Amino acid sequence: MATALFYASSTGNSEEIASKISKELGDIEVFDLSDTNIEKINDYEKVILGGSTWGDGELNDDWDEAWDSFKTLKLDDKTVALFGLGDQDGYPDDFCSALGIIYEQVNTSGAKIIGFTSSEGYDFDDSKAQIDGKFVGLVIDEDNQDDLTDERIKNWAENIKDEIL
Questions:
Q1: Residue 111 CB partners (closer than 8 Å, separation 6+)
Q2: DSSP, residue by residue, the chain
Q3: Which CATH class is domain 3-164?
Q4: pLDDT, tens only, 109-152
Q5: Which of 123, 162, 157, 116 is CA-nearest to residue 17?
Q6: How far apart are CA 98 and CA 20, in angstroms?
Q7: Residue among 84, 46, 27 nearest 162 (CA)
Q8: Selection from 36, 26, 2, 73 nearest residue 51 by Cα
Q9: Average pLDDT over residues 1-18
Q10: What is the tens place of the pLDDT at every residue in 49-106?
Q11: Dihedral of the CA atoms 124, 54, 49, 80 (nearest 10)?
Q12: pTM given for the model
């Protein structure tokens, strides 16, 4: 089974980042959760999950709609990498916290999680996506640091490709 990327996007930013990640990793399959059953994840041994944070650290609508089904998936035999988008200036108290919510569920399910990244270079107060000074995946801020996006994706993809492809 090949690798696939599953994302949810409300404004198009997560879709754009998913596309860039796919290209950086060699055009892996990409699925939009707005028109894909979350159980499609079962077809893959290696998955990348992502989306953006909304409101006060919440999942976006498509992740929220799929959440109950997602929590029932058996992920303990999977390798999982995560990415999230957030606005560190507008929401410094919950920066990229939806990524942390997804991480907690994936971690509880027993999956092998890869792709932790440094939180250096970001300016925020709190995030559910940060553990011991590291983010639980790739963190992108298209609102305030879009000039760093391509480099962050490239570095992250290089760090995970041996385990995710």
A1: 75, 76, 78, 79, 80
A2: --EEEEE--SSSHHHHHHHHHHHHHTS-EEEETTSS-GGGGGG-SEEEEEEEEETTTEE-HHHHHHHHHHTT---TT-EEEEEEE--TTT-TTSTTHHHHHHHHHHHHTT-EEE--EE-TT---S--TTEETTEESSEEE-TTT-GGGHHHHHHHHHHHHHHHH-
A3: alpha beta
A4: 999 999 999 999 999 999 999 999 999 999 999 999 999 999 99
A5: 157
A6: 20
A7: 46
A8: 36
A9: 94
A10: 999 999 999 999 999 999 999 999 999 999 999 999 999 999 999 999 999 999 999 9
A11: 50
A12: 0.97
Q: Enumerate the domain spans of the chain.
A: 3-164
Which residue has tokens 């925020």?
Answer: 124
